[in-house]
Design a protein that fits this description.
By secondary structure, the protein is mainly alpha-helical. The chain has one domain: Up-down Bundle (Ferritin). Helix content is 76%, strand content 0%. It is built from 6 helices and no strands. The site of magnesium ion (MG) has 6 residues, from helix 3 and helix 6.
């Protein structure tokens, strides 16, 4: 841990670490939700949807890595036991029990909307207080906004395809 790097943070560092760990739990669950969804999804546009889900899964895993790095820089410990993911997450996890493409998209859109709220709050919290975390959460927020848009565009295409039949 860099002492000066930590000293310039104008926030309660323990509380910040706690919030970053909650987001970290969200990212792993989002990764797993996309990953399982990509395995089971069925229905129209399966290929396009699977490709998007796999791509988003990789983004969520990358976000988990970014959060880990920042938690460690701040002298914290990231969640070591996956059993804590569900307990600590904000957005939790919806098992893709109904594999139809619309259901999978709806579940992941809900997850992205939750993620957007979480990162928007972190952006507000860290603005002018912790520039390093701020830059990171802005970058993640940009990805989550893009994810929601991508999924809603697929849903829109699905509706159009249905009407043309
Ligand atoms: Fe993410
Ligand atoms: Fe996302
Ligand atoms: Mg995408």
């Amino acid at each position: 841990m860099g002492t000066k790097g930590k000293a310039i943070v104008q926030l309660d560092v323990d509380e910040l670490i706690r919030l970053l760990n909650k987001a970290f739990a969200d990212e792993w669950l989002a990764y797993y939700q996309y990953w399982t969804g990509a395995q089971v999804v069925k229905g129209p546009m399966r290929g396009a949807v699977t490709a998007e889900l796999n791509e988003h899964a990789q983004d969520e895993l990358r976000h988990a890595g970014m959060l880990t790095e920042r938690i460690m820089q701040l002298g914290g410990e990231f969640i070591l036991d996956p059993a804590d993911w569900k307990k600590l997450s904000n957005c939790s996890y919806d098992a893709p029990e109904n594999p139809f493409v619309k259901n999978i998209l709806d579940q992941n859109i809900k997850g992205e909307q939750c993620a957007i709220e979480v990162y928007h709050k972190l952006v507000e919290l860290t603005r002018d207080k912790d520039i390093v975390t701020y830059n990171m959460v802005v970058e993640i927020l940009e990805d989550e906004v893009e994810h929601e848009e991508d999924l809603q565009a697929l849903l829109e295409d699905l509706e159009i395809a249905k009407k043309q039949k």
